[in-house]
Amino acid sequence: MINGKDAWVDEFVLHHIGSETVESTYSDYSAVLKGDEEQAFLRKLFLKPFAQMAITSEFAHAVGLEYNVLYNLCNEAQTGRDLVECSVDIAKHLVNVSRHHNIRGGDLFVARLNNVGLGNERYTALGMYKFEEKEVFIESRTSEGKVTMWLNRGLGSLKPNKACLVVFTPDAPTVFVLDDHDNTDYWQKDFIGHQPKRDHVNSTSNVLELTKSFITEQLPQEFEMPRADQIDLLNRSVQYFKENTEFDRTTFVQQVFEEEGVIEAFDRFGKTYKETNDVAFDDQFAISSHAVKRQARVFKSVLKLDKNFHIYIHGDRSRIEQGVDERTGRKYYKIYYDEET
Fold first, then answer.
1. Whole-angstrom Cα distance, residue 58 to residue 69?
2. Are 11 and 31 in contact (CB under 8 A)?
């Protein structure tokens, strides 16, 4: 989702977030690294963790957005406030919401970035990264004909335990959240305060997830449908999203489900699904290829027969026949093909 190939890290600040027994330490300066090697390392550290994300968020608050602390601080940084001052307030905000004894301390980076790719556009961004662990590495030095080496601890290939990338897109910032636990309250709710963004990325993910749930869970309850037919519907659903750049609900249901009774069942299930999962999407939207790629991984196209065979179905359903042997009473599938590959 995030393309950091041409991005540039303007400056960053490092603070140490303490714990119950260790005081927090706040820096009074920012680092600026302009070398190509340094910038490549910073892009890897600050942007690579978000490269495969296909879920977008936006800032939120139960009372009003103006009460969201991080939202206000990010806007101040974007409109020119000194990054060091702003990052200290961000670090103190994190300290204030993470006082529970089970919450670990660590290093907090706050970075100002430029030319961050999202879709086909480039934006400025502000990133916050909390590293609760460090990796061990070997350092070596050659001097006076001798090689010495020792162990040290630092950051290199580790991903942050928690991170938040705020991309300043038009109208409202787009927020990406990284959490080494599915939903850490102090990080996601108290520190960031976010909700799913109603955009084409989440709309694509939501409709695909809705369709998968309908085909695998609800459809077999309302219609007698062999597993091979379910897999065919799953494949046709994903194929629609891969072949089109725009989603149109009417066209989608007609191409995938075809039968009016199934379409009506899908519409009923969709209304319940939206209420139960608190999601919303329009009948037309631009399709996100990143979201399709991510969701397609969980669309299982495997037909499992007892413990003996797995049949992977990726194409023409008409080439598969199902039946029962009259002599033995055993079920079978007959598969037609042109050649072995």
1. 14
2. yes
